[in-house]
Each structure stands twice: as C-alpha cells, then as structure tokens.
Design brief:
Helix content is 35%, strand content 14%. It has 12 helices and 12 strands.
Length: 355
C-alpha cells in the first residue's frame, strides 16, 4: 500500500479474495502460523464441496480457513487481531485503514458510514478498533532533550446549556475538562500522550518514569509547580515563563512550542472532524493523534503498512467497548442513535473543545 491513492486501494481490493490473500501475506509472509500454539505446521482447508464457502444465510464467503497439525485447531489470518470476528468485508477494512492514515485530522465514524456503505454502529466499532491498533506500539524510553506539557480538552461550562453543565462539585474554578499530558523527544519529535485525572506531581511522575530515561536527560517545561519536583530527577531542568509571554528562552533553548503545536492539532481535529469525544474514549483518540504525529514524515501508504503491523495482539469486542463508560453503567441516559443499550439516568456530558 506504499504511495497509493484511495482510488488505487479501491481498485486493488475490489475482489474480496485478493484482500484475504493480501492479509495472509502481510501477517505470515508466506508461512502460515497457528495463532493458538505458534506452530508453522499448518495446511489449508479446501471447501468440502469444492465450491466457494457460504455463510449461514447462503451468501458467498471468502474466508480462508487453515488447520494446525499440532493443536488440531482451525484458524484464519484474522484470529488474534482487531479484525477477529468481523462480518465486514476485508476490502472495506483496508479502505478504512487507508482513510484513517491518510487524513490529517482523522476520520469520523459517520464519514465511514457513508463512504463504506455500512451502519453507524459498525463504523463506530471499526474506528475504535483501528485506534486501539494505533496505540499498540512498544518503544524504548525517551532520552536527551525532553519537552513536557499538559492541556485540557473539553468545553467551557459558561457556554453550555443547563443540561450539559457539569453536575459534580469540583471546587472553585471547576470545569468538566480532561487533562492530557504529553512528553516529546525534541530531537526525534516522537510524542507520547496520556489522559490523566489531574496535573499534580504525583499523577504525572509515573508517566514520566515509564517513558523517559532521566539519567543525562534535560527537561523543558513551563513554570507549572508540578514540574519542580519532577525536574530535580533530570540532569537539567529549564523552564519558560508563559505568564510573561515568553515562549522561548534563548539562553537555555527551553521551549514547549512543539507540544503546543500538537495540542493545537488535536483540538482542531476534535472540533472540526469529531465535534465531540466521550470521556471514556478520549485516550484512544489521543493515541491516534500520537501515531499520526510520529509518522508524519511517512507517505500515506507507509503509514498504513506500519498500522497493519500493529493490528495483531489487540482485540476490542463491542461489549467491552460500550462497557467502559457511564452509559453502560446507568449513570447517564444514552441519546437516540448512540450505539449501545439504553440506560436510565440524567443526560450525558460530552467533552467538547472551545470554539
């Protein structure tokens, strides 16, 4: 899929059989491997009648089934990936992956519903699984010059109507925004973000410890008090004073502009493309933009290939997806048209960015 346009992707995978063969080659590289026991001693199961397989409803199925000679279990190339259990054609999956990798601001589920001619429920589940694969990255801890900053994603309560205003008491100057903490390797531009409960030192320190090799590294932050204690564990800690309109300290080189650029892109995309993000799903959206930021120098096809390599080892069933937030727990009422079971309770709040 390297350096391919949407038209080329649609033409290449207009045949569902070609999409299955492509998926097998991409995952196994010509050597089928059992996802249950890891054995390469497997063989392809030809249809018993010699005719194409059919589903329970009698429609033709292009599913290619293999059987392991060691554990005697059947499998396909989709087992153990985000595609497992899907009834959506693989050709549409590949087009959705290309669209999400090619769009700078991402793709909303309603867009995929129209473009791929599927239901909104299927499109919403599809994009959430793709976002989960985008977050399936394993990298070494960052080192060198590290930039750390935080932002708040959400709407201004003063601009909300009475039904959407925060109902919990958070004290003076309370708001219903969620903080997002970001760490950036200034040399490589690699970014790692996490949705956190607050921006206090005790909350941010575990994220820094897990992602940064502090020995010999330099930390750039603003003058937030939460970074004072964290910065003591670095070789050096330089700050910029945003309250004095200082964005770059030319003596030390300290700046948080790269993190601010990321925050601007994240918020513009949420407002322009998604319009609103539920609190329980915000982490996957943040990791989606991490993936797109970290692969911004790659061609669209190269980015899609990297994503395909990350689809194995992660699964997200629909029941798990709707069980994460307050809708399934009965705290809020699910509005008409929103996927998932309808529950009793007050009206929901959605995270919205300011205009």
């Amino acid at each position: 899929m390297e350096r391919m346009s949407l038209a080329a992707v649609a033409k290449r995978f207009e045949d569902e059989a070609a999409a299955w063969e492509y998926m097998e080659d991409l995952r196994w590289h010509g050597k089928p491997m059992c996802p249950h026991c890891g054995s390469e001693n497997a063989f392809y199961l030809e249809p018993r009648t010699g005719e194409p397989r059919t589903t329970r409803k009698g429609t033709q199925s292009y599913r290619r089934v293999w059987k392991c000679k060691d554990c005697k279990r059947q499998f396909s190339c989709l087992v153990g990936t985000i595609f497992e259990g899907t009834k959506i054609p693989l050709s549409k999956w590949l087009m959705a992956i290309y669209l999400m990798c090619a769009g700078k601001n991402g793709v909303a589920a309603l867009e995929l519903e129209r473009d791929l001619d599927i239901t909104y429920k299927s499109a919403w589940h599809m994009v959430q699984r793709i976002r989960l694969a985008m977050a399936n990255t394993k990298g070494n801890r960052l080192a060198g010059v590290i930039v750390a900053d935080e932002t708040f994603v959400g709407g201004n309560p003063a601009k909300m109507n009475n039904q959407r205003k925060p109902r919990r008491s958070l004290g003076p100057n309370s708001h219903d925004k969620k903080p997002v903490f970001t760490i950036v390797d200034k040399r490589t531009g690699e970014i790692r973000s996490q949705v956190v409960e607050d921006v206090q030192t005790r909350t941010l320190r575990p994220s820094v410890d897990a992602n940064v090799d502090k020995l010999g590294s330099i930390l750039y932050t603003d003058q937030g008090p939460q970074y004072t204690s964290i910065g003591r564990r670095f070789a050096k800690h330089h700050t910029v004073d945003h309250s004095a309109s200082q964005w770059v300290d030319y003596e030390t080189g300290a700046t948080t502009n790269i993190a601010e650029c990321y925050f601007g892109q994240l918020k513009r995309s949420i407002v322009g493309t998604h319009h609103g993000v539920a609190e329980e799903h915000l982490q996957r959206y943040v990791r989606e933009f991490d993936f797109r930021w970290n692969t911004c120098r790659d061609a669209d096809g190269e980015r899609a290939m990297k994503l395909m390599d990350q689809t194995a080892g992660v699964k997200l069933s629909y029941s798990e997806l709707i069980a994460e937030g307050p809708f399934a727990l009965g705290k809020w009422e699910r509005p008409p048209g929103r996927p998932g079971p309808r529950q009793a309770g007050p009206q929901p709040l959605r995270l919205m960015t300011e205009d």
